[in-house]
TrEMBL record, chain A:
Keywords: ATP-binding, Nucleotide-binding
Annotated protein name in UniProt: ABC transporter ATP-binding protein
Domain ABC transporter: residue ranges: 3-225
Protein species of origin: Domibacillus epiphyticus
Gene Ontology MF annotations: ATP binding; ATP hydrolysis activity
UniProtKB/TrEMBL annotation, chain B:
Top-level taxon in the UniProt lineage: Bacteria
Keyword hit for Membrane: yes
Transmembrane domains' residue ranges: 21-39, 45-71, 83-106, 137-162, 205-223
Designated name of the protein: Uncharacterized protein
Keywords: Membrane, Transmembrane, Transmembrane helix
Length: 286, 232
């Protein structure tokens, strides 16, 4: 259940989607692949599934280049996953034939859970229900590497919450490498064991979630005290009602030291951290 | 390997099943109308070539869109490009065989109904009529199959060029494609076309089938390194 990118470059015309991207994902784990729009996440995920070929560099999925042995990967994109003319029943049956570990009983349970009608055509499903169908296929595939790229467009909060629970349930039941890419980072953050942040086609951060939470926090206090502590240049600084808050990140920052200076510290949501890290105008620093 | 080929075949089967049933219903209605219209004729024989032409067009459209519709789906679901090609090759072969058989059944039923109603002024024309006035049912079916496979494979190849290199490059390919053939191959193709028009033989249709296989094989280098983008 390993995915390895080695100096992978991909260009689309003049646009460089991935720039010598290198990383290793080792499963079983639930990892988050985060980044802004156009960062290169979808390109990278489609490469893992063997849909897109790199211009340069190599990709290895469970010991093979992805386009030569693919049944170990299941990719669920944001949309366009299925033939619109197919019914739900045909779609599920068709998917079941592609995945050797497919669990039909689980697929049936999930269809009932998401209240999908088997006789309905994909084109007549709402956006949310189509997303639910993608989630069903992804979870029931039991592929060693299962990728969800923005899988819940149109799903309401209750179903999204159910999806997060299901992901954990499925992971406990059959541990595998789940790669989740989403813009609803705060909602999904609790799931991630490891986080990859991509920006402008390059990896700017790869940490396990626990370390990331320890190494990133905000410091609030009198401007003078915060500025003194901020000799080390924080990610972001803001002032409100005479008090200054600095977002800091990195092993050089010590929460205990800040508290000794009688400054308030609190955790930074991963979404905010990602926003400030990928701030392109400042190169991630402010 | 085999399971993914089976999966590609199933996907194609479901996709075609729906389109084909609608197609045959419309064609059946047209045949009935043709028989009814022939009642109004006082003399002469009407040659109806509508079914063969409609089927050939149907095959061309199906072959062309297969790359755009089936390839992205099958690759995303886990088939390799080789498995996809093997599955589609089998599916084309079976489709041309089944469609040729259904065509035969339809025309035989049409002729039977015509005889029953004493309508002798209508003749359903098909490609096998070119080689004999009274071709056997088997020869007619096999010749249809050869033609249908050719239509599917050639359109599939052109569809792959359009899908990979976009529309402009596709049209450019179509425009300059005659230049790709060596002069002696061009000569042979002209001879084949002439013999199909003047005095066709069963062997000529077999050559068309072989050209279909060559077109299908030529698709492999086109899709081997073809990227499937999320918007496809």
């Amino acid at each position: 259940m390993n995915v390895q990118f080695d100096h992978v470059t991909k260009t689309f015309g003049a646009h460089m989607a991935l720039n010598r991207l290198s990383f290793t994902m080792k499963g079983p784990k639930i990892v988050g692949m985060l980044g802004r729009n156009g960062a290169g996440k979808t390109t990278a995920l489609n490469m893992i599934a063997g849909c897109i070929f790199p211009n340069d560099g190599s990709i290895d999925v469970n010991g093979y280049p992805p386009a030569t042995k693919q049944s170990s990967v299941c990719l669920i994109n944001e949309s366009g996953n299925f033939n619109k003319e197919f019914t739900v029943k045909d779609t599920v049956k068709s998917a079941s034939l592609f995945y050797p570990n497919w669990d039909q009983k689980r697929a049936d349970e999930l269809i009932s859970l998401f209240q999908l009608k088997r006789s309905k055509k994909v084109k007549s499903l709402s956006k949310g229900m189509e997303s639910a169908l993608g989630i069903i296929v992804g979870l029931a595939s039991y592929s060693p590497v299962t990728i969800f790229d923005e899988p819940y467009i149109g799903l309401d909060a209750a179903f999204r919450s159910r999806f997060y629970d299901l992901l954990i349930e499925e992971f406990e039941r059959e541990p595998r490498l789940f790669i989740l890419s989403t813009h609803l980072i705060d909602e999904a953050a609790k799931l991630f064991e490891e986080i990859f942040i991509i920006h402008d086609g390059s990896l700017i951060l790869h940490k396990d979630a626990e370390t990331l939470r320890e190494e990133s926090f905000s410091v609030t206090g009198a401007k003078k005290d915060v500025m003194e502590l901020n000799g080390k240049s924080p990610l972001h600084r803001k002032e409100f009602a005479g008090r200054t808050t600095a977002y800091v990140f990195g092993p050089e920052w010590n929460r205990h030291e800040a508290e000794l200076h009688l400054l308030e510290t609190s955790a930074i949501p991963i979404q905010e951290l990602m926003v400030h890290l990928t701030n392109s105008h400042t190169g991630g620093r402010k | 390997m085999m399971s993914n080929i089976k999966a590609v075949l199933y996907y194609e089967f479901i996709g075609l099943k729906k389109a084909v049933s609608g197609f045959w219903i419309i064609l059946g209605v047209m045949m009935i109308l043709s028989i009814l219209l022939s009642f109004s004729m006082s003399d002469g024989v009407v040659y109806m070539s509508g079914t063969s032409l409609a089927l050939a067009l149907y095959m061309i459209v199906t072959g062309f869109i297969t790359v755009k519709v089936s390839l992205p789906y099958c690759i995303r679901r886990g088939a390799t490009r080789n498995q996809f090609l093997a599955g589609i090759g089998l599916s084309f072969f079976l489709t041309s065989m089944v469609m040729a058989a259904i065509h035969t059944i339809f025309l035989e039923l049409g002729t039977f109904a015509g005889n029953l109603l004493n309508v002798k002024k209508i003749h359903f024309f098909r490609a096998s009529d070119l080689i004999s006035e009274t071709p056997s049912i088997f020869a007619s079916t096999v010749i249809d199959m050869f033609l249908f496979f050719f239509c599917l494979a050639a359109a599939f190849f052109i569809g792959a060029i359009f899908f990979r290199f976009a529309r402009k490059a596709g049209y450019t390919f179509l425009a300059i494609s005659p230049l790709f053939f060596l002069p002696n191959i061009q000569e042979k193709l002209i001879e084949l076309t002439r013999s199909l028009v003047n005095g066709p033989e069963f062997a000529n249709f077999f050559i068309i089938f072989i050209i279909g296989i060559v077109c299908f094989a030529a698709t492999w280098p086109v899709i081997r390194n073809l990227s499937i983008h999320p918007s496809s």
